[in-house]
Structures are given as structure tokens and as C-alpha cells.
Give the backbone structure.
Amino acid sequence: GVGPVLNQRVELPAVRKDGSTLTVELVVVPSPSETDYEFTGFIRDITELRATQEQLRRSEERYEAIARNSNRALVLCNPGGREGSVFVTGERVLGHPPGMPLPDGFLGLVHEDGRARAEEFLTGVAAGSRGATDTVDVRLRTAAGGYVLCEVFGEDLAVPPGGVRRAVIAEIDHAPLPLRVANEEDILPAP
């Protein structure tokens, strides 16, 4: 037997005995018999699964909308802030697109006058010596090449004990108004 639904999962609407509707997954499997083929169908109710997936999709859309319109940026980086970093969100803050890899890591965004402070801060976050309320103020490079003074928070996203990968999320807060700018030296042109 060859057919469009054999050995494949097919999602279908169905009706219960009481008239209520549900979504089912149907799999039809051929089995050779002594004279011909027999077909066995397996039906699974996936109504809750689809409802949960839809709820998750809507939640992700809301999160993405909040992140896109936030005055904060998130960078996923290794504990030292070097290679392997990815700009997660925050295009409004620094102008870098979400998902942009940072070949020089998070520290590649930091102006040279604050690089050592930022590295020490991120290493401290990963080591547990810096808490969620600790911050570091550094100048970060924008997509246009200038620098903006930002407050950086960090959180260790370590995997459970015995895991191999560790990552730190750097949360960057920048007020769009010049509330944090003490003087013109706080915003530097590109080097």
C-alpha cells in the first residue's frame, strides 16, 4: 500500500459523541497479511497540545513586542564577555539587529576605557560574587559607531551542576532622555 496518509501523521478536526469538537492526530500504518495488506489507524487527541502551543506562540509574540520596544538590550555572552556573544534584543538602544553575532564578544561593544571594569563585572556575575542588583556603567558602541553611556546588569544562566556550558546575560539599560548623561564626555564619537 501506497497512499498520501500512510506512515504519516495527519492532523484532523474531529467530533466527539456529545457533539464537541477536538483536534486529532491520525497515523495509518500498513501491515502485510497472508493475502493482502491490513491497515491500522492510531488516533491521538492533540487538542490540549495545540492550545498550549498557541498560548506559547502568543506569549512569545508579546515578549518580542516588549523587547523590540524596550529601552533595554540583552546580550547573551560567555562568563568573561569575550567571544561567542549574541545580541538578543535592543535595537532601539544601540541600533544592532536582534540575533547579531558579536565576534569580539560583549566586550567588543565596550569602549576601551571601561573594558576592564566590564570584564571584571561579568566574571564576577559568573562566579557569584556579583548579585542581581550590582551594575557597571560603561560606554557601549552603537551601530552608527558612536558610544552611549549605559548601565549593565548581569545574570548567570549556568546550566545545572555538571553541565558544560555557562552563559551570562548582560542587560543594558539606557534612558532615551539625557537623564544619565553627566556631560558631553559621556557620549563619545567613534574612535
